[in-house]
Specification:
With 66 residues, this protein is an alpha+beta fold.
């Protein structure tokens, strides 16, 4: 998904989605944001799987403590 920064209002970036809907996002999510900048948002299944694996491992360690 691509989003475009429509405008910046203080600590908020007002962003336009592909369906023309506007949403407010914290400006800290972006690197040096400016009006008109376009960002891509992608789902990262590999990163999700890695996080889930680490969480399961930690849970198993905690579960097996005496």
């Amino acid at each position: 998904m691509r989003i475009t920064i429509d405008r910046i209002e203080g600590d908020i970036a007002v962003c336009e989605l592909p369906d023309m809907q506007l949403i407010d996002l914290p400006i800290r999510l972006f690197d040096d944001p400016k009006e008109g900048d376009v960002y891509s948002i992608e789902k990262d299944d590999a990163a999700k799987d890695e996080r889930m694996s680490k969480a399961r491992s930690l849970f198993e360690k905690l579960k097996n403590r005496d």
